Every structure is written in structure tokens, then in C-alpha cells.
Model the fold of this input.
Amino acid sequence: MAKECKDFTFLGKSLSDLSEPYISVDFDSERARDFALSRSIEYADTVSSRTEPSIRKAALDGHLTFEIHLIKDPDCCLTENDRIFTETQTRELARWLTSTDTSQFLRFTYENAEESDTCLFYGQFTDIQPFLASGELYGLRLTFECATCYGYTDEIVTDVHCQGSTLVSILNHSDDLNRCRY
Done:
């Protein structure tokens, strides 16, 4: 699954901060999307008073992984040669994205973002592959593997001052609805 986005931030630096204007595209034009990971469910035995087995535990199989495909922005390239990645530009991207040994947050900014869009993922870039055309480097396939099975929203902070009782609803658009801190 390739993610298309307006911009992304990793290790405190944004794609738009780099020396060249890059854009996110989908090289493969796949419209299929992964919505959730598969789960393994361990069931308990049934008993005579209960015909439906209870669930002992459910575990997700694997980690969320996706690709980001980058090319130089064609609107900013005057000639065909301007679209080709140089070794210096490739090294700049590789240094930035693979310079950490620990998982970090990757924040996406979307062109037409809805409030419910998941924008934060926690993990590492695990692979950078070339996208070649006629023997020239025209793009990069970046693979990001999440350390968790979920995407997250920004931290939600709500201060409530009340006298008596007050009902407060806080919307959580994270994929992991059952793990909240109060």
C-alpha cells in the first residue's frame, strides 16, 4: 500500500524542508487499501450452559507497513534532467530517514485532510529502493514499518472547569480506541 500525502514530518524535519521540492505519488496506481491487520483469536472451550465460546485472547498478526513513493515535483523541474535524482539528493533523503535506531513518529499532512484522518504512525523507515526509468533514478520507494499495529491522532488535551456535574465528550480518531490516558 502506498501512502499519498501533501507532506510528512519525521525526526522533526519535513519533506518540504529539503533542498529539492519532492511530492508523494503512487508508482503502482493501486487503489486497494489495507484497513486492518489480520488477527489470531484463541477461543476457550464451550460448556453446556454456553454454546458460544469465549475469547481467551486476540493478537494482531504483524505490524502495519506501507510505502511512500517520492519523485521531484514536475512543476518545479524545467527540464527532464532536473527530474533525475542526484547522488547528493538521494544521500540527503537516506541520511534523514534512516539515521535513527529507535522508532519515531511519522506525521502525515494530507491535501484534503478530514479531521478523522489518522496522521501519526510510530516506527522506522526500513528500506529505500530506487524507481528507475531508462536507467535513470526518477524516484524512491520508502518503506515504513510501524512498531505498533495502529495509527494515532495528535494528543488531545481538554481542560474542564465545572461546578457540579458536567458531561464531556472527547473524540478520539486514533485506531487504538481502547488505550487512552486520562
In short: Helices lie at 87-98. The chain has one helix and ten strands. The CA atoms of residues 42 and 57 lie 5 Å apart.
